[in-house]
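Sanity check

After download, print the first record. It should look like this:
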Amino acid sequence: MSALLEIREATKVFGGLTAVNKVSFDVKQGQIVGLIGPNGAGKTTVFNLITGNYRADGGTITFDGRSLAGLRTHRIVQLGIARTFQNIRLFQQLSAVENVLAGRHCRTGAGALAAMLRLPGQRREEREAAERAAAELSFVGLRGQAMELARNLSYGNQRKLEIARALATDPRLVILDEPAGGMNENETEELIGLIRRIQARGITVLLIEHDMSLVMKACENIVVLEYGARIAMGPPEAVKQDRRVIEAYLGTDEELA
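Expected structure tokens:
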């Protein structure tokens, strides 16, 4: 299994603080990989380096063999990396389907003139985008809420809507930043099923998550950060028993059961 995402000694410094300190790991094609660690460990900073929100001060990040250095966020999305955010970022005044259509925009090619003249190619793109948006809403379980304003959806359904919008971009890698945040136990179980269905579509998943039950059930490989540095990496059972991980973040063995 080849590496889709390769991170080598990635470093990010803010003033005198090294938020990410020479972090290296791979995400192989088709895997579900968890990135965990205590608050302030540098997890979201790593995500922001991958997606172009921050520029690395050192090291390399490559996606399917191509360096992501210096690329703008929209270009990284076009290459096949989509993400959700720890703090939900939806267009709250738009409907669910309109939010997903906004994600689909990166894959449409008709220009302003075609839109003004309502040319056949532009109409076809609109129809295909609407069909895709409906399909992604159905995939995450929101087909019946397509016309609901995003702000009126439950917190758990807003999380699902963000995932639907990410999937509409045709990603090869989906990055999920605490997708279970604010969810109850039943919603979390549904989320695990959704993540597995995403993987079944051939999409690779990288996620930050504090819900260790989700991480242990869903992930095939786990990377652990502390103070911006990687302290452990491996399959869930190995990470679960790593003393450095237990001391840094996870507490007792009973908490990992």
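If your output differs, re-run the checksum step. Summary of this record's structure: Confidence is low (pLDDT under 50) at residues 111-117, 252-257.
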